Amino acid sequence: MHSPRAVIVAMLIAAATFPVTALSADATQPAIFSKPAQLFTLVNVTFDSVTALAIAPAKSNAFENIVLGEPLQGGLTSTTVHVPAGGCLRDVRATFRDGHSQVFPAVDVCRYHSMRLTSRGA
């Protein structure tokens, strides 16, 4: 039989290590939890202007248009936009001046706060 003191010490050790274990588990998981609206920077280094931007929860195809104000010129330009509140994993769709669109799937907007568009993709 364990002494009451040994039981209390064991409980304190378990309680002290639980938060560390819980944090460690969360750090290894993909960020899928809901977050409030946040800022996200889009850098355009392609040769074409981005005329529209839309963001959707990953794999949902429920894109919400993001106001750019004016086209994001090609070259080396950037803009900062508000990402609507929601989950961390988002699909980002950029529409270019020539009309073609490109979807960048499962962008983790909680971990990364910017994305660089290049001629070969983000």
Quick take:
The chain is of the alpha+beta class.
List keywords for this structure.
122 residues, alpha+beta, Immunoglobulin-like, 2 domains, 4-stranded antiparallel β-sheet, 3-stranded mixed β-sheet, 1 helix, 20% helix, Plastocyanin, signal
- What is the name of the CATH superfamily of the largest domain? Domain of unknown function DUF5300
Q: Which whole number gives the mean pLDDT?
A: 79
Q: Using the 3D structure, state the CATH architecture of the largest domain.
A: Sandwich
As residue ranges, the low-confidence spans are 6-32
Q: What is the CA-atom radius of gyration, in angstroms? A: 22 Å
| Main beta sheet | 4 strands, antiparallel
Total strands: the figure is 7
Structural domain tally: 2
Strand order of the largest sheet: 3-2-5-6
Organism: Luteibacter rhizovicinus
Signal peptide: 1-22
Protein name: Plastocyanin
Keywords: Signal
